[in-house]
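User: Can you fold this complex?
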Amino acid sequence: MTLTHLDRRGFLRGTSAAALALGVAPRVFAQPAPQKGGHARIGHSGGATSDSIDPATYTGGPVVTAMLGGVCNNLVEIDENGAAKPELAEEITPSADAKTWTFKLRKVSFSNGKPLTAADVIASYNHHRGEETKSGAKELLKDVVDIRADGDHVVVFELGSGNADFPFVAADYHLLIMPADASGKLDWKSGIGTGGYTLEEHEPGVRIRLKRRDDYWKEGRAWFDEVTLLTINDPTARQNALVTGEVEIINGVPTKTVHMLKRRPGIETVEVTGSAHFPFPMHCDSAPFNDVNVRLALKHAINREEMVEKILRGHGTVGNDTPIGPAYRFYNAELEQRSYDPDKAKFHLKQAGMDALDVTLSASSAAFSGAVDAAVLFQESAAKAGIKVNVKNEPADGYWSNVWLKKPFCMSYWNGRPTEDWMFSMVYADGASWNESHWSNERFNALLKEARVELDDAKRAEMYGEMQQLCRDDGGSIIPMFSNFIDGKSERIQHGKLASNRFLDGWKAVERWWMV
Amino acid sequence: MTLHPLVSMILHRLALGLLTLFAISLFIFFAIELLPGDLAEEVLGQSATPETVEAFRRELGLDQPAMLRYFNWLGGVVRGDFGTSLANGRDIAELLAGRFANTLFLAIYAAAIAVPLSITLGLLAALYRGSWFDRAVNILTLTSISFPEYFVAYILLLYFSVTWGLFPSIADFGSDADLSTMLFRTFLPALTLVLVVTAHMMRMTRAAIINLLAQPYIEMARLKGASPVRVILRHALPNALAPIVNVVALNLAYLVTGVVIVEVVFVYPGLGQLMVDSVAKRDIPVVQACCLIFAGIYILLNLGADVLAIATNPRLMHRK
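Assistant: Here's the predicted assembly.
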């Protein structure tokens, strides 16, 4: 421990002189230049024995961190500033109506030496389309009418309706590029990609071992010699592993213990405000939630500050009943922050012609950890507004298939999406499969379609601003808070500017971080 | 000709064991069918849509009636083919082999410490009944069994791993480790299990021996001048073996089948974790295979205990 410390200090002394000479801002001192080498071990939550490297089944966890951030590339990646940046695509050209997208591919090779061609890209996308697919990305690609090759290195996507944000879609974690087999189907079983690492071992739910490729095409990425991702689902065990030096990086530090972890010498925590949020969706098509005044009463009856303080222990920010937080490009900062106001809640109840309200909220720890506690806090604060919230503790097992989308008032969780359009189309648009609040607002749906094909950013900002307001004042979801992503790491692990879209640097730590 | 009574008993019991396994497989299959949701819904989770769930079911044959799927599965097992995991298509026999070896390793490791330790402690406690030693052993073992095992595990982790840094906090030893690494890495989980199972075996040994010490033939042995140690080892212990062996067998079975919490805390890839994951995802063939192994272990260990109990008891061995 002391030795590495000395090394690091000596290194800093050397580089700081150089940095001063170059006139670089002092902020850079803490970030020595990236260097190759080291064996990074990551303690990761969310792995299971039933994990598969089939991209159709991805939901997150160590498999995605290894495959998205190490073994494979997408056509586009989300960079640390939240922008879409061409990855395997060299050039992306939309048509004027944003309906036809032409991707010119980079000339790179898979780790087995096979060159990347348009056929591989088409197979990788078709794996998530059509009758036979079981992919979680099917919804996302339902607007793609046709994908065709134009020579070996150009792929053309035809969309049914325009989508100015299509490059963000191409960065989705399901849509990584793997080779096609002889029949044109995706050969995901090979575990081969164009990324900076090769998959050496995958024991589902136990460990994944990656080794660096020396001929990686991307400059300034993939620093570790080797990476091992260990599935450690128990948060205490994960922290122990970091503290005892069994691993160098862990994700998902529980907010309960993050202050203790910070005190530990040699350990640092990494925290970003992301777009992850916890909606309480109410079905807008069933009584009593079909009355907007009832929805507004409930929205005023929740104490957001208290919830951030007690459920997230300060590691988050208050929400404003819209899924679009400050991390988004077109965040509407002028929207007034809604706060806890029992009198206003009573006023809205009266508007709805009621003196009291009695509702049942289905809660479960499956939605997010602390969900049941959050429901009980809500119960307390709503009681002061004359609203009786009965908290029904639903079984965690099967929550997403039996309770969510089925019960009229429940709890949900979204990691957030890279764009406003994506988040809104997926959960708030009329007819979306996951429209968890059964919300249908004519103006909102019209704006959604308009903004999607609009290529002028100023106009889009205006439209998305209005949609956020509609969501806040008419929508069916109470969104009390956004949570931070908190990871832990040894001080030997270094990184550049962090992406805020997910934990572990946007799930790209394997490729972006390095060891000193 | 007639078979030796012991041999015929073993054969008889094995046949009954097969019947039990069959009943268990039927029971488990339909118990999992009763759980809400199926594999398609569990794997897709929040991102499921009706069409993708449907496609998933078609691909895996989950749209067929349960009865048909059960008999398809049974047909495979009879031919020695456990099939493939529904969740990730891996061969189940291969999947289980590694996990089972890990579980067995940890169980044997813990048993190799716990069984001699608890029997010795039990004998000593019986020998010095009512002494400070007896009381101290009783209090210590009862304390360790009274705490939930994850608590014992966390306490051991806190001191042996986090504070003193003597042993690693993660027991997974990777795919190519030598025996000393394996023993070193799995020491803390083994110790946790030892603390959890010792009390039961130790107290049974003590009780069985003390029970016999009141018998006239023990008094006779004492009167003829045998030393206390000889009275216990030579005269009391052989007659107390049957109950002790039974308790040991039960605890060994527990070491194989009941250690999922210890596996989670120490991140050890054993069968328990595999089965819990598979139940959560409704991966029925894997759950079935795990259950059959667990049930088989119980049946064999109980059979072994009975055989030993009979073999060490001449009255049962040479029944008229």
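Chain B has a mean pLDDT of 85. Residues 5-78 of chain B form one domain.
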